[in-house]
Design goal:
30% strand, Aminopeptidase, alpha+beta
Length: 171
């Protein structure tokens, strides 16, 4: 398994991966219809294609040469929360890190996270949002040095109505 930058030819597989992973993870939380709606909007090939060309971002896939087992997407906004003791902190935001259900707990997520954390050397911190009921993901991020630093009622996009924990890690 290796991690590489995603390309346009990967988008159909990534879209399927996100659909499968979201249904396996979130159907019990949001319901199958809501998950289908979200994946149709956020994980379509057209939506994913926009991420490929967004400045100051990285879109990675974990590939074994036969199939894509995981994906991650992050961006750097250049300026984070103002901290008077540390001045402005430049931060990266980890928007997505998903691994196919049958590939989880095999180190794929760790490979993706490790690679993503070095993609933005100018960043001083990494911020992400995670569904509080996704206990496996919360544990994974805690093991990797992330701490809960807040909550949001609109994970993923303004007005989503999806509650999430905000987790942060210094880099």
């Amino acid at each position: 398994m290796w991690v590489r930058t995603a390309s346009k030819r990967d988008l159909p597989a990534v879209s399927r991966l996100l659909g499968e992973t979201w249904h396996a993870t979130y159907d019990a939380i949001y319901g199958e219809a809501r998950v289908a709606e979200i994946t149709g909007e956020w994980h379509s090939e057209a939506a994913l294609a926009q991420r490929l060309v967004k400045p100051n971002s990285e879109f990675l896939v974990a590939d074994d040469g036969k199939a894509i087992a995981g994906m991650a997407y992050a961006s750097w906004d250049g300026v984070g929360e103002f901290d008077p003791e540390k001045q402005n902190l430049e931060k990266m935001t980890l928007h997505q890190l998903y691994v196919l259900p049958d590939q989880q707990r095999r180190g794929v997520g760790q490979l993706l996270l490790d690679e993503m954390l070095i993609c933005f050397p100018q960043a001083h911190s990494c911020v992400l949002e995670v569904e509080p009921e996704n206990e496996g993901a919360v544990r994974f991020y805690r093991r990797n040095g992330f701490e809960v630093t807040g909550e949001t009622a609109d994970c993923g996009s303004a007005g989503s109505g999806i509650r999430a924990l905000v987790m942060t890690r210094a880099l």
